[in-house]
């Protein structure tokens, strides 16, 4: 529970946010161990997310895996009256809000370890008793739909839905993934067309309230350097923050309103054209950069990466300053990823390894082939999701902003 002083500070920040027509939601970053990248775990996660009907590969991993295994950044929302805080992952690659539910069975260990929503404790909640389930390869997230107030940031922020907002109250969570998670649930920020049970999203009501929301946009700044800085990043709702980027924003129109799907103009490295025009999805719920296997293999070869096991590639840490830049073309502009951007240095028990931030995954039609631009890319480039104009904007992220 936050202290009175912290609550007062949050209230002051929220008041200022309403005054400027923007809500700021600070985010915390979760660092994962190397295990999260082994045995094609990320590939399995992405297939469950983007390949309809994909069955989880138990040869790769024998624990349940949610499709948010490697999402890293989370922030606070409140639910109900009086408002109760929940930490949620803001995920542009899905479209449902769900949190653990009070009264979940003792077998749901993840529920016991996290904040739980109790509809009976909220004066504005209505339990619809409508069943809800998201299917995964080894199980499902199950629960029921409830209607209540959802607020971004604190309950006093003013950026709230009315009490008809539907979301899932989960009584069963898949596998062991969520047991040790720092966050309670997921707030999907894709389009309603891919929402399970076609539940409207909280942003819909926020965007329709022109009195508080002047622009139907949200934007992410992710802090990739946490040395001496506890701020993991910030999501702004209803406007962008010029302090978080430099230069102009390059805009790319959506090619569909399901995921945040755009057209990637091409990828180049060391003068080699890896791909021409191809579909891409900007996904805050994915840590790595993922693309067709043959294209990723060409990149791994060009950067001198070597395969360790099951699609996991490493580079020699001492060679990072000598590695080439990978260039993406979006919105008619070039976006460079230096080796410092695309190599993930993970240190465990005093030993450091340097993992390639690229991974191969073949998504079949109709969703694929495509590239998934995850946090490796979004961390370098401030990302604007313009719901009103159906486009994505990208600009160089300002280093060290807060």
**3D shape:** globular
Query: Helical percent range?
Result: 10-25%
What would you say the CATH architecture of the largest domain is?
A: Beta Barrel
Instruction: Give the DSSP E fraction (strand runs of 2 or more residues).
Output: 35-45%
Mean of residue pLDDT values:
82
Q: Which CATH C-level class of the largest domain is it?
A: Mainly Beta
Largest sheet, strands/sense/barrel:
14 strands, mixed
Low-confidence stretches: 1-19, 56-71
Calculate Rg over CA atoms. 20 Å
Terminal CA distance: 24 Å
Structurally, how many domains make up the residues?
A: 2
**Number of strand segments:** 28
What structural class results from the helix and strand content? mainly beta
CATH superfamily membership of the largest domain, which one? Acid Proteases
Supply the number of helical segments.
7
The CATH topology of the largest domain corresponds to Cathepsin D, subunit A, domain 1
Describe this structure in words.
The protein is mainly beta and 402 residues long. It folds into two domains: 172 residues, Acid Proteases (Cathepsin D, subunit A, domain 1, Beta Barrel), CATH 2.40.70; 179 residues, Beta Barrel (Cathepsin D, subunit A, domain 1), CATH 2.40.70.10. It has seven helices and 28 strands. The strands form four sheets. Strands 1, 2, 3, 4, 5, 6, 7, 8, 9, 10, 11, 12, 27 and 28 form a 14-stranded mixed sheet that branches. β2 and β3 form a beta hairpin. The longest helix has 16 residues. It starts with a helix and ends in a 5-residue tail after the last strand. The N terminus is likely disordered. Keywords: Aspartyl protease, Disulfide bond, Glycoprotein, Hydrolase, Protease, Signal. One of its GO terms (molecular function) is aspartic-type endopeptidase activity. It comes from Panagrellus redivivus (Microworm). InterPro entries: Aspartic_peptidase_A1 (IPR001461), Aspartic_peptidase_AS (IPR001969), PEPTIDASE_A1 (IPR033121), Peptidase_aspartic_dom_sf (IPR021109). One of its GO terms (biological process) is proteolysis.
């Amino acid at each position: 529970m936050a202290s009175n002083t912290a609550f007062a500070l949050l209230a002051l920040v929220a008041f200022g946010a309403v005054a400027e027509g923007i809500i700021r939601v600070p985010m915390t970053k979760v660092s994962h161990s190397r295990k999260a990248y082994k045995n094609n775990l990320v590939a399995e996660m992405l297939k469950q997310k983007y390949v309809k009907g994909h069955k989880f590969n138990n040869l790769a991993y024998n624990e349940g895996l949610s499709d948010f295994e490697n999402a890293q950044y989370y922030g606070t929302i409140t639910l109900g009256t009086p408002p109760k805080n929940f930490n949620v992952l803001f995920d542009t690659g899905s479209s449902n809000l769900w949190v653990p539910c009070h009264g979940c069975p003792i077998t749901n260990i993840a529920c016991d370890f996290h904040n739980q929503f109790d509809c009976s404790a909220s004066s504005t909640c209505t339990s619809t008793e409508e069943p809800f389930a998201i299917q995964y390869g080894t199980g499902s997230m199950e629960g029921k739909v409830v209607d209540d107030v959802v607020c971004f940031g604190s309950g006093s922020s003013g950026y709230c839905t009315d009490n008809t907002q539907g979301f899932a109250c989960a009584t069963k969570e898949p596998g062991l993934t969520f047991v040790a998670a720092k966050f309670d649930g997921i707030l999907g920020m894709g389009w309603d067309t891919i929402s399970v049970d076609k539940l409207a999203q909280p942003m819909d009501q926020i965007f329709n309230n022109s009195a508080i929301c002047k622009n139907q946009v949200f934007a992410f700044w992710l802090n990739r350097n946490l040395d001496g800085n506890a701020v993991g990043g910030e999501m702004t709702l209803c406007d962008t923050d010029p302090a978080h980027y430099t230069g102009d924003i390059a805009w790319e129109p959506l090619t569909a309103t399901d995921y945040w799907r755009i057209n990637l103009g091409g990828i180049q490295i060391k003068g080699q054209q890896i791909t021409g025009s191809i579909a891409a999805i900007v996904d805050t719920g994915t840590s790595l950069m993922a693309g067709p296997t043959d294209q990723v293999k060409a990149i791994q070869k060009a950067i001198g990466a070597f395969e360790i096991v099951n699609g996991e590639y490493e580079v020699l840490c001492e060679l990072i300053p000598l590695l080439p830049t990978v260039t993406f073309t979006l919105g008619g502009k070039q976006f460079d990823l230096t080796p410092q951007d695309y190599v993930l240095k993970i240190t465990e028990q005093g030993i450091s390894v340097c993992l390639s931030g690229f991974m191969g995954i073949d998504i079949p039609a109709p969703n694929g082939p495509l590239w998934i631009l995850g946090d490796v890319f979004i961390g370098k480039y401030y990302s604007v999701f313009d719901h009103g104009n159906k486009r994505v904007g990208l600009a160089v992220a300002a280093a060290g902003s807060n």
